[in-house]
Amino acid sequence: MFSDLAQMVTYIQDNQDRFLELLYEHVQLTAISVLIAILIAVPLAVVASRFDLLAKPLTWLAAIGQTIPSIAILGLMLPFLGTGFVPALFALTIRAILPIFLNGYVGIHSTDRAVVDAARGMGASDAQLLLMVELPLAS
Predict the structure, then answer these.
(1) What is the DSSP string of 64-105?
(2) Which of 21, 27, 134 is nearest to 89 (CA)?
(3) Which one-letter DSSP state was computed for residue 111?
(4) What is the pTM for the complete model shown?
(5) pLDDT of residue 1
(6) Do residues 30 and 92 touch, judged by C-beta distance below 8 A?
(7) Mean confidence (pLDDT) of the chain
(8) Which residue has the higher pLDDT, 62 or 48?
(9) CB burial class (10 A; 0-12, 13-18, 19+) of residue 17?
(10) Which H or E run contains 16?
């Protein structure tokens, strides 16, 4: 085990420029995919929490989507997007949307009704209720 670690450290030292380039690309890919996923999943979670008719199909679809491996998504998109940064970004974004949506929906939907009633009693609008009560509690 220690010989493998030593070989890895030696490889990184010998190829430091390439390693840093790939590390930067990896961090960039991860950050962009999570940002896109948040921008898609949070509004979907809000919509699903407001409209029960959409909640069941969206949560069902997200739960089914969680069972699909990332490599399968990548393989399915290969003919359309090719290889490289874009298909990896697509696959990671799809994989990130599902748990963000499910957790956002459950968080908003399970907000204590007494807290919601108290906010309404204090005159909170729907937007204020969402932004100042439900989303902070869901997070």
Answers:
(1) HHHTS-HHHHHHHHHHHH-SSHHHHHHHHHHHHHHHHHHHHH
(2) 27
(3) S
(4) 0.80
(5) 58
(6) yes
(7) 88
(8) 48
(9) exposed
(10) helix 16-50
